[in-house]
Automatic annotation (TrEMBL):
PANTHER family: GLYCOSYL HYDROLASE (PTHR10353), LP05116P (PTHR10353:SF36). Signal peptide: none annotated. It comes from the Bacteria. It catalyses: Hydrolysis of terminal, non-reducing beta-D-glucosyl residues with release of beta-D-glucose. This is Beta-glucosidase. Transmembrane segments: none annotated.
C-alpha cells in the first residue's frame, strides 16, 4: 500500500500523537459456547428466536477466537497497534445466578492479557458489550436497578483477576443501542418493544458504569470511561416540525447519555413525558471523574418529523454513498468532525480526552476468500474518517486514540454474517483468517503517522 493512498501530510501531522487500536466483542468472535462453562446470555436467546438473525446463522464457531487468540494477537502485532479493544463475556465470568465465578472462563482472559502484553500491546477490555446474563433479564434486565449492582460485582471479580496487569477499561458499550434497539424497538436483544417506556434502562446502565468505575479504581485502574454510539443529527428541512424532530432525536441518542456522564444532569425530558428513576446521589456516581469519553461513530443521521407514536423518522441523506447496511448508513466523514466539534462546544471543560472507540464500515464480501480481498471501499471510508478526526484535532478537540471496528469479520448481531466489517476476512465455517487490503493500508498508516 503506497503512501499516496494515505491521508495528506497535513492530516498525518495532527495524527502524530494518536494511539491506534482495533476492536472486537466477545459474543461476536469467541465462539466456544460450551468450552468452559459459559452461561447463557440474552444473545443466545435472541439467536434461537426464529427469523431474528437475517441469515439464520449463529455465533458458532464464527472466528473461534477462544481457541485462536494467538492468531489474533499476531495479527494485531502485525498491524503495529498500540492497544486492543476486546470485551469480556459477563456470562463466561459469572455463568449463572449463584454468584460463583468461573475459573476456566477467567483463565481465558488471563491468557489473552498475557499474550497481548508479550506482544507489547496494551489490553483495553470492555466489561459489557451487550451479553447480559439471561437470569438477570428474567428479573427485568436493565429495567431493574439491581442489575447495576450485579454489574458492579462482576466488574470487581474481573478486576481482581486482571487488575495487576490491566489499567485501561471501558465499562459499558453503546448504552443507546441497548436502550433504543434492544428495549424500545426490539431490533436487538432482548427484543422488547417498549418505545419510550424503555428509558429507565438508560439510567440503570449509566449507574452501572459509575458503580463499576469505582470498583475498577480500587484495583488499580487508571484509565476508565464509558463509550457510546453517537451521531451528528441533521434535520431533513428547515421546517419547525423537522427541526423539533431532530432536536428530540439528538436528545435521546446523544444528550441523554452524554449529559449525565459529563455534566451530572439529565437533559429536560418533558417533551417525551418521561421521568427517569433517579435516586439521591446517583448522578454523583454517574458523573464521577472520567479519564476519557468514548465515541463510537459510523454515520450522521438525517431526521424528519413523523406522525406515529415516535415523533421522528430516520431518512436517507440524498446523494450520499452508503455502506452495506444501506441508505440509512450514509458515508459522510465530515459528520464525525461536526459531532466532535459540537461536543467540544457543548461540554467545554467537562469533556475529557476523547477516544474513538469504534469506526468502520461493512461492504458486500464473499463468505470464502481465495486470496486477499481488495476492499478499497473500506479503505476509502477509513481514510475519510481518520482525516475527519485530524480536522477535529486541528479545531481543538482533544482526541487521544482511534479504533477501527473491526479487526475481524464477525457475527454481526441480527445481521449474522451478512455484514463484514473486518480488516481480516474470516471464513464463518472454517474460521480461517485472511488479511484484506485494508489491513495492509491500516498498518502503513500507523507506521507513517509515527514516522
Amino acid at each position: 500500500m503506497t503512501s499516496a493512498s494515505l491521508p495528506e501530510t497535513s492530516s498525518l501531522t495532527h495524527l502524530a500523537r494518536l494511539r491506534w487500536s482495533a476492536a472486537t466483542a466477545a459474543f461476536q468472535i469467541e465462539g466456544a459456547r460450551t468450552a468452559d462453562g459459559r452461561g447463557r446470555s440474552i444473545w443466545d436467546d435472541f439467536v434461537d428466536m426464529p427469523g431474528r438473525v437475517r441469515d439464520g446463522s449463529t455465533a458458532e464457531p464464527g472466528p473461534d477466537s477462544y481457541h485462536r487468540s494467538p492468531e489474533d494477537v499476531a495479527l494485531l502485532h502485525g498491524l503495529g497497534v498500540d492497544r486492543y479493544r476486546f470485551s469480556v463475556s459477563w456470562t463466561r465470568v459469572l455463568p449463572d445466578a449463584s454468584g460463583h465465578s468461573n475459573p476456566k472462563g477467567i483463565a481465558y482472559y488471563d491468557r489473552l492479557v498475557d499474550q497481548l502484553l508479550a506482544a507489547d500491546i496494551t489490553p483495553f477490555p470492555t466489561l459489557y458489550h451487550w451479553d447480559l446474563p439471561v437470569h438477570l433479564e428474567e428479573q427485568g434486565g436493565w429495567l431493574n436497578r439491581d442489575t447495576a449492582e450485579r454489574f458492579a460485582e462482576y466488574a470487581e471479580i474481573i478486576a481482581e483477576a486482571l487488575g495487576d496487569r490491566v489499567a485501561h477499561w471501558y465499562t459499558i458499550n453503546e448504552p443507546v443501542s441497548t436502550s433504543l434497539q434492544g428495549y424500545a424497538i426490539g431490533e436487538l436483544a432482548p427484543a422488547r418493544t417498549m418505545l419510550f417506556d424503555s428509558l429507565p434502562t438508560v439510567h440503570h446502565q449509566l449507574l452501572a458504569h459509575g458503580l463499576a468505575a469505582q470498583r475498577l479504581r480500587t484495583h488499580g485502574a487508571t484509565h476508565v470511561g464509558i463509550v457510546n454510539n453517537h451521531t451528528a443529527v441533521v434535520p431533513a428541512s428547515l421546517s419547525e416540525n423537522d427541526q423539533t424532530a431532530a432536536y428530540i432525536y439528538d436528545l435521546i441518542h446523544n444528550r441523554l447519555f452524554a449529559d449525565p456522564v459529563l455534566l451530572g444532569e439529565y437533559p429536560d425530558l418533558a417533551a417525551l413525558g418521561v421521568e427517569l428513576p433517579v435516586r439521591s446521589g446517583d448522578l454523583d456516581i454517574i458523573s464521577a471523574h472520567n479519564d476519557f469519553y468514548g465515541v463510537n461513530f459510523y454515520n450522521p443521521t438525517r431526521i424528519g418529523a413523523s406522525g406515529g407514536p415516535v415523533p421522528f423518522e430516520i431518512l436517507p441523506i440524498p446523494d450520499a454513498p452508503h455502506t452495506g447496511f444501506g441508505p440509512l448508513w450514509p458515508i459522510v466523514p465530515e459528520g464525525l468532525t461536526a459531532f466532535l466539534i459540537d461536543a467540544k462546544e457543548r461540554y467545554g471543560v467537562h469533556l475529557p480526552p476523547v477516544i474513538i472507540g469504534e469506526n468502520g464500515a461493512s461492504f458486500p464480501e464473499p463468505d470464502h476468500a481465495d486470496g486477499m480481498i481488495d476492499d478499497r471501499d473500506r479503505i476509502h471510508y477509513l481514510r475519510g474518517h481518520i482525516e475527519a478526526v485530524a480536522e477535529a484535532i486541528a479545531a481543538g478537540v482533544d482526541i487521544e486514540e482511534y479504533t477501527v471496528w473491526s479487526l475481524l469479520d464477525n457475527f454481526e448481531w441480527a445481521e449474522g454474517f451478512t455484514q463484514r466489517f473486518g480488516l481480516v476476512h474470516v471464513d464463518s465455517e472454517t474460521s480461517a483468517r485472511t488479511p484484506k487490503a485494508s489491513y495492509d493500508w491500516y498498518r502503513a498508516l500507523i507506521a507513517e503517522a509515527r514516522a
